[in-house]
Amino acid sequence: MKFSKRYLAIGAAFVSAAIVTGLGLAAWLVYEPPIAKIRRPSASDFDRNLVVRGEQLATVGDCIVCHTAPNGAPFAGARALPTPFGTLFSNNITPDEKTGIGTWSLAAFSRAMRQGVARDGSHLYPALPYEHFTHVSDDDLEAIYAFLMTRQPVARQAPENQLLPGLGFRPLLAGWKLLFLRQTEFQPLASESASWNRGKYLVDGLAHCGGCHTPRNLAGGEESGREFAGGVAEGWNAPALDETNPSAARWNVASLFAYLKRGSDSGHGAAGGPMGPVVEGLSRLNDADVEAIAVYIDSRMHPAPISGERAVDAEPAMDNRSAAAAAHPDADLLFDGACSGCHAPRAPMNLNGRPLLSFTTDLKADDPRNSVQALLQGIAAPGEKGAYMPSFSGTVTDRQLADLLAYARARFTDKPAWRDLEATVADIRKENAE
Amino acid sequence: MTISINVNGKDHVVEAEPDTPLLYVLRDDLELNGAKYGCGLGQCGACTVHIDGKPIFSCLTPVGLLDGRKVRTIEGLGSVEKPNIVQKAFQDEQAAQCGYCIAGMIMRAQALLDRNPSPSEEQIRVHMQPNLCRCGTHARILRAVHRASREISSATMDGGAQ
Hints:
The structure holds two protein chains of two kinds. Chain A is mainly alpha-helical. Chain A is 45% helix and 5% strand. Chain A has 19 helices and seven strands. By secondary structure, chain B is an alpha+beta fold. Chain B is built from five helices and five strands; from the N terminus they run ββαβββαααα. The mean pLDDT of chain B is 94.
């Protein structure tokens, strides 16, 4: 009895010590000091060339897409970002002193970008891809800071986030970072070209391509070891950018450049869904950086040189109309009435350099999701200007849409029919409505 | 072939190929000339009508698709003598310059207001985006939608029906 009591006391002491140490460790992990406010810098405090460079870098980072509400002032935030964990609202990153980052020093800005900690010391949600921005160089962060601090200050407070119960408690994010935030500096590879290294630096860092093209685990972190294996973004598939890339026609530097810079490539298709705003941004980026991204992505898709490489133009346009029409007679009529004005061979759109349906990656993909989305949501023109693909959501029923896609797949590709198409259409339509 | 369609609550039987655009049937066979042919490619919205309450481009809608579905055109809203609230609001704001786009604009606005009688400025702008006005009366069109929204709200409060 005596002994056991004594053991109990020692045990209790150990447990208490462990709890205290644990709490202390947790507090140490969680606690980030506030960084003192500064007086808002004026535009003349920054070198003009630095601001111009910052504009290009901010374009690579696509800051404006998440940090601008629909029809809202640029960079003033308040855009709803739906996530599996609830809806976040982006912050105002104009130099407004009250609602924006007007009182943030360069040190505070750099900490937010690299460590996901706001000026006041609170942890930021990883919707801000700081696990990518951690690779951005000091010089580049300074340029982006100069660019943002010389924008028009706009007073706009973002609405409160609407997260699942408990997740509004920001100190939890320190744990997330412990698991998923690796703060490493970019290391160039001497064995690769300058353009490849520049591309890797941009892709891994500011461009945060992996944010969509790398699958995420249940905690919302990018799965380690599966970089660029393909992910999902806003209800669209973000195709794999590694050697499992599903495109039937081989991508190369020239076609990647065309797609990224102009929003579509005649051998693969047009950027749809969340990729639309990305290419809209890249259209304003200097050619050398877009080319560098293309060089690096191409190397990821083709780690080993491929012999007997097939050029896009060598692939014949496919059009099995009679067989497709025999199998799907209603869809043949539907295609004629609804689609052929743009998508029939020799329609004006094709003459404009837009891809034929037989070259469209999404129609050849194993998963029909992006084709369904293109019809349900349409494809916005870059920058919401110019010709676009209208939504057919209100025009066709689920059954008609499924029939139409089955027809298009049979007519313009040699791939096997998609299965359970009507149920898939119904599911995706329901998702879109949520 | 013979096709039956329901337009503005009335069943019609027309002779047409099933891939004929609904727009042509509305204008040529049913003499409902409100909806206009603009681009024929779903880029301008001049041909906008409703199917089952949703705004669609009738130039891209084959008439053979419409079995069992309900089409509504601007003629189904009101008449010259008795315009409905949205039509009246467009008149009051003088939203038309040449007027070619207006039937489509009204139908698109009507679809929004049927679903949400008090939309925000942002919701109106996003919703109206597919429809173009080459004369540039967009500012008046937006005012007209706001006016219609206000009038629907006050009509509802007075116990009247839209």
